[in-house]
Amino acid sequence: MQTRNVVAVVVFLAAIVSIPAGAGATGYAWRDHEAPFDFVFGNHIDTHQQTQLTGNGGLSGFLYITPGEETTADGVPIANHGNCSQNPEGCMVGWLLNGVARQAEYCGHVSGEHPAWAIASQQMPRQPGFTHFHWLDETLHHDGLDVGKQYDGQLLKLTAVTEFVFSHHGEWEVTPGIDVETHANVYPTCEDWPHFGHGGGGHGH
């Protein structure tokens, strides 16, 4: 087994150990935020996440996918985020989710990508893998957010538990282990975002 694969397996097993007892990595059914996984962000991500607050104000839980009928030529399922409250039987755990509480500046959004956020490098966790920020607000979607404003939220690390193709803002081949690609949307400053000042957002837009 290649060194990279060994590392991925070790990280994956460590992530599973961090999940509370009774919540198997791939088998935790959608329960519509029933306790203990009763944390909600207040917006659209709640249709496909079930998490609980940890003692330090962070999160631990699951991010769900909805596989469709299509597969790759190798038989790997193609999945997206669905509304698990409307289709609980069609949802399965795609990733283990761990979060740390942070504030981030909203940089803007361009079609086909996740909304972009800025968190200063010194505010990033030393542990690698935290690549996705999601806001805590009853603003359901990013088009209601104000560019340049600071929002409370969670900086998330995702650890995939199975193999699938994630068809969301592109097509991503996902394998078990820490996933730093499918949801990446954090930059040290908004100026570091490739679309800053070019119609996607930025100060004064």
Describe it for me?
With 205 residues, this protein is mainly beta. It has one domain (3-192). Helix content is 7%, strand content 35%. The protein contains 1 helix and 11 strands. The chain has one helix at 3-17; strands at 49-53, 59-71, 77-80, 92-108, 116-118, 130-135, 150-160, 164-167, 171-174, 177-179, 186-187. Strands 1, 2, 3, 4, 5, 6, 7, 8, 9, 10 and 11 form an 11-stranded mixed beta sheet that branches. A hairpin with a 3-residue loop joins strand 8 (164-167) and strand 9. The N and C termini lie far apart (50 Å).
List its traits.
about 200 residues; mainly beta; eleven-stranded mixed sheet; disordered N terminus
List the helices and strands and how they pair.
Layout: H1 3-17, E1 49-53, E2 59-71, E3 77-80, E4 92-108, E5 116-118, E6 130-135, E7 150-160, E8 164-167, E9 171-174, E10 177-179, E11 186-187
Parallel strand pairs: 3-8, 5-11
Antiparallel strand pairs: 1-2, 2-3, 2-4, 4-5, 4-7, 6-7, 7-10, 8-9
Individual helix count: 1
Question: How many structural domains in the coordinates?
Answer: 1
The helix/strand class is mainly beta
Radius of gyration equals: 17 Å
What's the count of strands? Answer: 11
Query: Which regions have little confidence, pLDDT < 50, spanning 5+ residues?
Result: 1-25
N-to-C SSE string, H for helix and E for strand: HEEEEEEEEEEE
The chain-level mean pLDDT equals: 86
Span of the ends, CA to CA: 50 Å
The main sheet comes to: 11 strands, mixed
What's the helical proportion of residues?
A: under 10%
Strand content: 35-45%
Task: Give the overall shape, derived from the CA principal axes.
Answer: globular
